[in-house]
Amino acid sequence: MDWSKYPNFKKSEFDCRESGENRMTAEFMDKLQALRIRYGKPMRITSGYRSPRHSIEAKKKQPGTHAQGIACDVGVMGADALLLVRLALDMGFTGIGVSQKSTGARFIHLDIAPRMAIWSY
Known about the structure:
This protein has helices spanning 11-14, 26-39, 55-58, 80-90, and strands at residues 44-47, 71-75, 95-99, 107-111, 117-120. The protein is α+β, with helices and mostly antiparallel strands. The longest helix is centred in the N-terminal third of the chain and has 14 residues, at 26-39. It is globular, with a radius of gyration of 13 Å.
């Protein structure tokens, strides 16, 4: 993948934290870069690609969207969460999860799986 097409992101932000692998798809990254441009603020990636062997993915019956290279989690605070969700919906992201655990751990999950789903953690 040509990471120079995504000037607001670094490949390392999306590397699996356990295996170092990175199989993000160009389709997802194109959409995420377009979202970042509309959002107009830095986006802190807290989780990108996860190998199917990653401890989180291994607990699942089937590896999820992170393991398919079509998802990421973005750290957010305050009203930025609502803005990011609104923009993501407008731009056609099909999976949006909102983590509301605490102010330090809040994140928005974004994916482009072939279904529409919104949930909270």
